[in-house]
Amino acid sequence: MTEKGTSKAQAVRDYLKVHPKAKNKSVAKALGNNNIKVTPHYVGEIRRTSRKKKRCTKAKRGRKIQAPKAKYPRHTIDKVLRIPRAILDQNAGKECSEKDSAKFVGVGYAGPYQLEISSAIKYGLLERPSTKRLKITSLAKKILRPQNADEELKALRESVLKAPDISDVYNHYRGENLPDAKFFKNALLDKFNIPEEKISEFISILIETLEKSQLLEKHDEKYRVLDYLKETELGTDNLEKIKKLGKKVIISADDTCFVVMPFAEPHGSYYSKIYEPAILKAGLKPIRADSDIFGSGKVMDQIWSGINAAKVLVSELTTKNPNVFYELGLAHALRKPVVLVSSNEDDVPFDLHHIRVIYYDVNDPFWGEKLIEKVAENILSAIKNPKEVIFKGEGEI
Q1: Same domain, yes or no, for 300 and 374?
Q2: Helices 98-105, 82-90: inter-axial angle, 10-degree rounding
Q3: How many structural domains are present in the chain?
Q4: Does 137 share its domain with 174?
Q5: DSSP 187
Q6: Do 380 and 260 have their domain in common?
């Protein structure tokens, strides 16, 4: 250090700022006159280090921030089916080059067509056996040349489940209404990491593709995502999903899930058949008022205690039972996360439409298994993201 507390390196840098073109020997001599002894070689080292730092700083400033890339197919499934259809019609479905496929479709082999190929691959309709070569998948053949009445629709739905991001959004909302526009946009941005500038495009592709696959219905200006699950998928893929969700939340052995539901049949029996196994699958202890906490003392005191102590609640809204709505009001007043379930949208009050609701269809032969999986999944999701299922008061978002 110099007498003034300045390091030799800093003294050299300060001198070079004022005399940038000075030779190393001249810098060393000038500093020596001020009792700062440095060699010309040392000055050269400091000069080279300073230049490197300047180059790195310029490079960082000039480097553009890369926006997250969209993973989802950039086209609807109906749009990209034209590629495998053209290969099937004009090349007997045989493997071909990408350039030849463009000729079959009747378009130029340019950037937009390359993106279309990528979308078709993401839907599982095409595959690349080697570089710049394309081959139709068996899934595409089932859609374009079905052998029975159900094959085309089943294959379309399988394609949806293969598509990145689209399949994630479908699985998250299956059996539910899509949220209102503002909340849906927030979910796509925060939960599914869709780039903000691509959200409008994604929603358009999602809606058209789900409609084409008959996985979306419109009810009172709202979109309902239909719960399509093959029998073979029950207890396999969804069980894995539930396990992954379970690892992301903290649940203790004493945590309870309070079930708010009618006692009369047939819904009364759903507790042991549906809700109890679903809650146990999620790792919590199921509690219901009629049999589990009723004893001596005031009934409502015990219901209040059960709701207040619960980590999360499940509420069966079917039949518009007044006791159910009363207990649900208590839960909302306590800001408790509640998983709402109903077999009939008309039984869900208007002021609850902004909260996620699981809908089920008892005419579906697999409705019980599907509902168990979905309730277990939503219980864990409610614990992880309580804002999705907590009642929002006036002015809240």
Answers
A1: yes
A2: 90
A3: 4
A4: no
A5: H
A6: yes
Are 303 and 320 in contact by the 8 Å Cβ rule? The answer is no
Tens of pLDDT, residues 227-271: 886 544 544 556 666 666 666 667 788 899 999 999 888 888 999
Q: Which of 282, 235, 248, 71 is nearest to 169 (CA)?
A: 71
CATH number for the domain harbouring residue 310: 3.40.50.450
Mapped onto helix, strand or coil, the DSSP state of residue 2 is coil
Q: CA geometry: angle at 334 spanning 332 and 336, to 5°?
A: 65
Measured CA distances, 90 to 45, 87, 95, 284, 336 (Å): 69, 5, 11, 58, 60
Longest dimension (CA), the chain: 101
Report the relative pairing of strands 256-260 and 285-288 from DSSP bridges: parallel
**Phi and psi at residue 273, to the nearest 5°:** -85, -35
Quick check: 290 and 263 in contact, CB under 8 A? yes
Residues 372 and 276 in one domain: yes
Same domain assignment for residues 199 and 261: no
Mean pLDDT for the chain overall = 86
CA atoms within 13 A on the CB side of 299: 6
Q: What is the mean pLDDT of residues 46-57?
A: 79
68, part of any domain: no
Rounded CA separation 374/242 (Å): 9
Which residue range is the domain that position 283 belongs to? 250-388
Distance separating alpha carbons of residues 171 and 165, to the nearest angstrom: 10
Mean pLDDT in residue range 375-385: 90
Q: Considering the domain boundaries, does residue 51 fall inside one?
A: yes
Distances (CA, A) of 214 to 113, 209, 222, 310, 363: 27, 9, 15, 38, 17
Q: What pLDDT, in 10s, does the model give residues 130-164? A: 999 999 999 999 999 999 888 999 999 999 999 99
Count of Cβ atoms closer than 10 Å to residue 43 Cβ:
23
d(CA 304, CA 254): 18
